[in-house]
Amino acid sequence: MSDILIAGKELPECLELAEGFTNTKKVFISAKKDIDLSPFESEGIYSTNWNKASAISARSFLITAETKMKELNQYVVIFDANLFASKFELDKTENIPVGIETMFASYQFFVNELLLRLEQRKDPAMITFLVKTYPSKFETLHSSAKNVNLIPSSNIVNSAQSAFISLAENCSTLVADKPYMSVLLARCDSTNELYNEERAIGEWLSQSMDAIMQMKGHQSAKQASTWVKVGTKVSTGFSLFK
User: Fold this and answer.
1) Which of 19, 30, 33, 87 has its C-alpha lying 20 to 30 A from 102's C-alpha?
2) How far apart (Å, rounded) are the C-alpha atoms in residues 157 and 83?
């Protein structure tokens, strides 16, 4: 039995993704302020507030989740570039400080605190880095698949997306030195048929993470650092993604 923590996307925006896990797991996630959380708890979804500008708040978020979820050993860190593109649509100077706080600093704070907690506990744990990518102006210009309805992401969102991918890739290499740690790098591009089906993404993640944690032997850094297309069937051998 595994409980799961989702970081990087909040209630109510993350409800469908969270519901993809609730058939087999309890879910802990951050929520926007002034939201009635009781309806979510009836579905096995628990929450608290998280100040993304604070490393202390990231630590408190994790500890609260551990207290509430006795079987917590799976973590999903999600970067939804499409969501951020709607919030930071234009490259305005006044968007830069809050953009850095929301899309850069918060992930660094959370992942640093998570790695420290896992190092302290040394219990088997699974981290998934899920990136829902969104094309930049450069990518749309050079893409053969033209979509006239697509508005390219702003520079700050695209830069943050690249930073998240780099963070995920570098963290994935740590499994070679940490026998208690497993990692899944999951990528969902805007052309993926599941891109707007977050409940289905949650179900796929749940099954894939369970399969990796149940595999025989420990992941190599090379295995852990391979990006996997969301929706791909995962064999119990992990290295055979088809």
Assistant:
1) 19
2) 10
- Judging by DSSP bridges, how do beta strands 227-229 and 181-188 pair with one another? parallel
CA 35-88-205 angle, 5° bins: 60
Q: Please tell me whether the overall predicted TM-score, pTM, comes out greater than 0.90 for this model.
A: yes
Q: How crowded is residue 242: how many other Cβ atoms within 10 Å of its Cβ? A: 6
The vertex-211 CA angle with 209 and 215, nearest 5°, equals 120
Kindly compute the dihedral angle of the four CA atoms of residues 166, 167, 172, 177, in this order, to the nearest 10 degrees.
Answer: 120
pLDDT above 50 for 74: yes
Instruction: Identify whether the C-beta of residue 193 lies closer than 8 Å to the C-beta of residue 222.
Output: no
Tokens representing 63 are: 């500890």
* 241 vs 234: CA distance, rounded Å: 5
